[in-house]
Design brief:
320 residues; alpha/beta; 5-stranded parallel beta sheet; inorganic pyrophosphatase (n-terminal core); globular; Diaminopimelate Epimerase, Chain A, domain 1; 2 domains
């Protein structure tokens, strides 16, 4: 990874105009990594564009400062495009809007193993989050991390590790978090903001989602389907509730699926499993055009509900 860090550092040093983007419907890891790196590069004198589809979810906007982001580009012409935490190129917001855009170089920071990334890849599935990887890159290149940058990175780590509860958390992650707090970052502030903003909506979303649970105990699949009308009604609460993670904890379940129709006819799926179930949900997501981690993955599909469920059961049968 040190050699890749060196190569990436040279790409950035040689670039003048840099665009950064992360995955659609960004979480705190993707957005925090983007904003942290953008802030550092701006301080290095680079012309930086942070591209995201606006508005952001309310849970991110107040803490992660969406005023530094743009959803409009007057001209396309960058020395370097940096994609963060997107897993699959089709999920990268900049690529979705400008699939034919040309750039001299592309650079990817990611911790998704089974992926479709572009350009020089700084990809490490062993780290807890893309934010942790960006931290390592900044430290390696001795680029200063101020308090605001530290806040962005810590928010990404806290969110992607479920508050340091996931299996991806090791001593190194805790050491990184500790260093970021020594630099002035507040874990408590971010955790409290998310909890205070969305506790009521999360509770309602969980209650409604559990009423819709369908199980196939032969295949070991638990699934929840939320149609477009209900998605508009529940809104952000669904994404914050972590329904798939709750379902995957049931001992009879190998894989939990939450399928949300965010646009008419367009489904976003979240797949979760537990370490002792020996199921790599990233492989299942890849079969549907997505990607992710061993225990957490996602996809976006225009297939029908029945076709998606059938494809997932087919993948589960192949694994068994």
């Amino acid at each position: 990874m040190k050699k890749l860090f060196e190569q990436a550092g040279k790409l950035i040093d040689q670039a003048t105009r840099i665009l950064l983007s992360t995955h659609e419907a960004p979480d705190a890891d993707g957005l925090g990594s983007l904003l942290a790196l953008a802030r550092v590069l701006s301080k290095k004198g680079k012309s930086v564009i942070s591209f995201a589809h606006l508005p952001l979810p309310n849970s991110l906007g107040s803490f992660l400062g969406q005023e530094v982001l743009s959803d409009k580009l007057d001209a396309i012409g960058f020395d370097l495009v940096i994609g963060l935490d997107y897993g699959n190129l089709a999920r990268l917001e900049f690529y979705q809007s400008f699939p034919d855009a040309a750039a001299a170089n592309w650079l990817t920071f990611d911790h998704h193993l089974i992926s479709d990334q572009k350009g020089l890849g700084l990809i490490d599935p062993k780290v807890s989050s893309t934010a942790e990887l960006v931290y390592q890159f900044l430290i390696f290149n001795q680029w200063p991390i101020d308090q605001e940058t530290a806040n962005y990175l810590l928010a990404g780590i806290v969110d992607d590790t479920g508050g340091f509860r996931h299996a991806s958390v090791g001593a190194q992650t805790l050491k990184v978090a500790g260093d970021l707090m020594l630099k002035g970052a507040s874990w408590y502030k971010f955790a409290c903001e998310k909890k205070l903003h969305f506790w009521d909506k999360k509770a309602v979303a969980l209650s409604e989602a559990f009423l819709r649970v369908r199980t196939d105990l032969v295949k070991g699949l638990a699934s929840v389907f939320i149609d477009h009308a209900d998605f508009k009604r529940f809104g952000q609460g669904l994404e914050e509730a972590g329904v798939a993670s709750f379902l995957s904890a049931a001992p009879e379940i190998k894989v939990a699926l939450v399928l949300i129709e965010k646009e008419p006819g367009v489904f976003e799926g979240s797949l979760r499993s537990q370490k002792d179930r020996q199921v790599n949900v990233a492989l299942i997501a890849k079969a549907l055009g997505g990607g992710g981690h061993w225990l957490a993955a996602g996809f976006r599909s225009r297939l029908s509900l029945e076709e998606i469920i059938s494809a997932i059961k087919k993948e589960l049968a192949a694994i068994a």
